[in-house]
Amino acid sequence: MTELVFYAAISSDGFLAGPDGDMSWAEKYLASGEDYGYFELVSHSTAILMGRATFDFEIENGVQGPRPLPTYVLTHIPEFYEDVLDENVFFTGGDISQVVELVKLKHPGRVFVVGGADVANQLLEHNLLDTMRLFVCPEDLGSGTQAFKDDTAYNNFTLVDEKQYSSGIVEEVYKKVST
Known about the structure:
By secondary structure, the chain is an alpha/beta fold. The chain has 5 helices and 10 strands, in the order ββααβαββαβαββββ.
């Protein structure tokens, strides 16, 4: 069985990024030295699924070197990335259900869904997301990129765990309700 886990930092008012994709608000939390379970999640995952904007953000911010896991980047313009030579990065597009089936077939186990409101909302819309690990930062952004289209994102989930960090971040773990 494959589990899709969405892992993201969000502001207390529900934004993944500020205006124009600004992520500088989150830097003070990342600088705390706490890894917020990131290493554990990566080390127990079989693949990564992310959107093009998240991939671009990582590249622009110096994330270099080979990927630790097979990484599937959702994009409508794969030819834009023909210079990316990492054999562990796959650019794909189309129907999200088909992409997830491909990833599940090739990499059964846990799939780490990294950031990306568009990807998370597509997965929610198709009932493909199993777990949400949200790191709620004590910060109101007021505008920017909403994590979820609306409050219905939580409808098929139940809060199963909550943890407070010294940085002020509260980790909320939601699991899909079995039907």
